[in-house]
Amino acid sequence: MTDATTPVTPVTPLPTADLVDEHGDRLSVCDTQFRQFGGRRSFCGRVRTISCHEDNGLVRELLRTPGEGCVLVVDGGGSLHTALTGDLIAASAVENGWSGLVINGAVRDSAALATMPIGIKALGTNPRKSAKASRGAIDVPVGFGGVTFVPGDVLHADDDGVVLLPRD
């Protein structure tokens, strides 16, 4: 069994509706209605997580490390008060090989994010910067939209939504 930091073979994005048809109840479907912000509308990868609130210090730090095709799931508690990522942090994610970001919170620099070759789903936008104190936790289970995201599970996202396959 792999943990969240063990490299794995890259995953190919598959349509989420097809995955639901194939896997049924074994698949978790996130009920949160995200908006698309990245230039890549379909993405997938092994899950890494961050839990934080209006503080993107850990997001910035983790996305500066090799992503190896992973998807970072950030539970910002649904806050739209500050942005948890923007163009500079997303550019770092692209540079370091992250497949995508799913943010239960806000982003900024949305026009720039739309041009980047990375998947980004978030609740909305806010131009306000967040704190940089690095408060929160990395690679802990986080939950929203009726799904618990566990590091190492495989996430697929597209225009229809976000689904999660538990690791075998």
Automatic annotation (TrEMBL):
Binding locations of Mg(2+): 109
Keyword flag Metal-binding? yes
What's its catalytic activity? oxaloacetate + H(+) = pyruvate + CO2; 4-hydroxy-4-methyl-2-oxoglutarate = 2 pyruvate
Q: Does the keyword Amino-acid biosynthesis apply?
A: no
How would you classify this enzyme at the top EC level? lyase
Picking any one GO biological process from the record gives: regulation of RNA metabolic process
Q: Provide this UniProt record's keywords sorted from A to Z.
A: Lyase, Magnesium, Metal-binding
Binding-site residues for substrate, renumbered to this chain: 86-89, 108
Q: Tell me, what does this protein do in biology? A: Catalyzes the aldol cleavage of 4-hydroxy-4-methyl-2-oxoglutarate (HMG) into 2 molecules of pyruvate. Also contains a secondary oxaloacetate (OAA) decarboxylase activity due to the common pyruvate enolate transition state formed following C-C bond cleavage in the retro-aldol and decarboxylation reactions.
Return the similarity comment: Belongs to the class II aldolase/RraA-like family.
Subunit structure, as described in the record: Homotrimer.
Q: What is this protein called?
A: 4-hydroxy-4-methyl-2-oxoglutarate aldolase
Question: Which species is this record about?
Answer: Saccharomonospora xinjiangensis XJ-54
Taxonomic placement: Bacteria, Bacillati, Actinomycetota, Actinomycetes, Pseudonocardiales
